[in-house]
Amino acid sequence: MTAPAVPAPRSGLARPFLRLRVAGYAFFLPFLVAFLVTVVAPLAYAIYLSFFQDRMIGGTVFSGLANYARAIGDALFGAGLLRVALFLVVQVPIMLLIALGCALAIDSGRLRWPSLFRITIFMPYAVPAVVAALMWGYMYGDEFGLVGQIGDALGVALPDLLSRSWMLASIGNMVTWEFVGYNMIILYAALRAVPEELYEAAEMDGAGAIRIAWSIKLPALRPALLVATVFSIIGSFQLFNEPNILQTLAPAVITTSYTPNMYAYNLAFNGQQINYSAAVAVVLGLVTVVVAYAVQLLTARREKTL
Amino acid sequence: MRTLPSRVVITGAAAALSLSLASCGGGSGGGASDAAPAAAAPSASAAVQDALTKPAELTFWTWVTGIEKTVARFEAKYPNIKVNVVNAGQSADQYTKLQTAIKAGSGAPDVAQVEYFALPQFALSKQVVNLADYGAGALKDKFAASAWAQVAINGGVYGIPQDTGPMAMFYRKDIFDKLKIEPPKTWAEFVEAAKKVKADNPDNFLTTVDPGDAGGVDSMIWQAGGTPFKTSGESNVSVSLATDPGVKQWVSTWSTLLGEKLVDPQPGWTDEWWKGMGSGKYAVWLTGAWAPNGIVNSIPKTRGKWAVAPMPQYDAAQPMNAENGGSSVAVIPQSKNIPAAVAFAEWLNSDPEAVKSLNEEAGLFPATKALLDDPAFRDAPLDFFGGQKINQVLSDASAAVRPGWQYLPFQVYANSVFKDTVGQAIDGGGDLNAALKAWQDRITAFGTEQGFTLSSGG
């Protein structure tokens, strides 16, 4: 009965602190549950599966690291990795440069309808990848597709964009179309975070638009560019939807091991080699992590030396 | 089912049951009770008949368009059973889902469409019910031999044949007439016809060959007398793509056609391909008897321009044919009501009313002898084919199918890597023999890894 009259200073401090901790966990819990159930558990299960071998005759046996040894020496897997690596070094810089240009253009304030421009560039990202692949696949057709019709109208024979030599470039074009808007938004958001005073100060110092872009906007964009690059690296290694859809149009060009993800998918679902497929997926994940981390380290080091 | 007297249901022998079912489907079931002899009935097959009268709900995975109409007839006849028709994707897409659901232990349908080429794989891994345990062996004589042979695996019966695809040559009569080409009776004549088409217009081709369609090439090899895949017992597999004489026959003709660019290595079923079929860029489609449905629906403007002839032969004195495609309906062990599922699968594919509906309302080419031999079916002229009685050609094509062909117990995988190997040579003009050897190597490596004993002998 006396307690409310004389509030103890100790408990007065401890209670909010305790409440804060509980509240913190309470906020954290939904994410934690979702994270454990949808990320950690499947990953752990895939790693677990990768240590076994399931045969149609003979059932499941523990095989240790055999699946990993095989994956590392697997020529089909290696060729797929090289292919997506090539895709990465060509497509990602092109896509990010275009996205950068678009973001700077919107931010410059010199466009007539900046939000229309923004939404138009972003729109392809809202198109499901499967639909996009079907649509582009149709347009690429060299006989009756858009490309073929343009060629006919101009009276020239345009190259078959679904042929062996053009396929990777055609997929690169599709992916660029899809993701320029997405990266543009990331970069544009970073640009919006630059304090207005910086621009004012630069203007007072007599800097023009190009000088401002070079000396203020680009340095400010560096962290966002890094994020976009890392996302794009992951996306490149995970390349699947576009080639998988185009496969029906060019089955001999896009083999079952065209990209590492397609290889893992076909192993698991056409060959029922779920265990080996899991090992391939884990190795692919590790390669992605290593490459993404290396890029991050390199950028960080360069930032230090600057 | 209410019309079928319960005495039949309980006491009928397997053979008589299918008879009584047949008469039931034929019209009123009133007289069926007389058809039931008092012979000892396998209890399982009695349970199958019994199931038709009890309330049940079945899920049926199929990608046959229009099959809902046939299923509705079943539900009208047996109102206690509700069948949910689900399209879970086509072919390999559906098998992926099916195998995943079976592995997961739940989520699989009671009944599923499984193509003949994939059935051995499901049968071997016990992912489909052996219907012989439920008396389905008694249905054997109802089906064309070539159809039944594809569901009778390792002494069991793993599916009920639904439709078949005896191969035939679908050709553009208008183009043949214009170029004065007679439908080729032999493959040598086929090559000559291809040269004529090419000479007339270098952009046109007699036909296409799909570098991604293993099934098409499997069937062509079958038609050439090949048996490159053999399974004995549960684990002995022989693959002889590099040495089989039938394969060699196929290679000799098709390496000429491909090497001289007389046929177009164009993937089938794509927009480009259908447009080529409609525009007259291609004049021939060598395929299964199910093709008319696709032609009529996809390129309706070619009405009246098509005709059908038997497949070209390697030896005209000994005509041989093959099956291309076709599906069975299998029962999944996960089903909570296997007898009802079996009863449904049997009715759907063997009842005269059902098979007529499958043919007329779903466009399937029949698997039952009764319909294949039915004069009303055989002698019907089809307007789309300029009034030709094409079912005569196609029914005869069914009878000419060469027995003895086998698919691998892992044909789904083997077919999936066809495009990585043989497809490369078809598309890029490479050496077919080397490509077939590469395919054999991929198949052999996979089979060995899966615990099979592989040999390359014939």
UniProtKB/TrEMBL annotation, chain A:
A biological process from GO: transmembrane transport
Keywords, alphabetical: Cell membrane, Membrane, Transmembrane, Transmembrane helix, Transport
Keyword Iron attached: no
Protein's cellular compartments: Cell membrane
Listed Pfam families: BPD_transp_1
InterPro entries: MetI-like, MetI-like_sf, UgpAE/MalFG_permease
Membrane topology, record value: Multi-pass membrane protein
Cellular component GO terms, alphabetical: plasma membrane
PROSITE patterns with a match to the protein in the record: ABC_TM1
Taxonomy, superkingdom: Bacteria
CDD domains associated with the record: TM_PBP2
Domain (ABC transmembrane type-1): residue spans on this chain: 81-295
Residue intervals passing through the bilayer: 25-48, 84-104, 116-139, 166-191, 220-240, 274-295
Family per record: Belongs to the binding-protein-dependent transport system permease family.
Name of the molecule in the record: ABC transporter permease subunit
Organism: Nonomuraea phyllanthi
TrEMBL record, chain B:
Keywords assigned by UniProt, alphabetized: Signal
CDD domains recorded: PBP2_TMBP_like
Signal in keyword set: yes
Signal peptide residue numbers: 1-25
Keyword Cell membrane (UniProt): no
InterPro entries referenced in this protein's UniProt entry, alphabetically: Bact_solute-bd_prot1, SBP
Protein name, entry field: Extracellular solute-binding protein
Source organism per UniProt: Nonomuraea phyllanthi
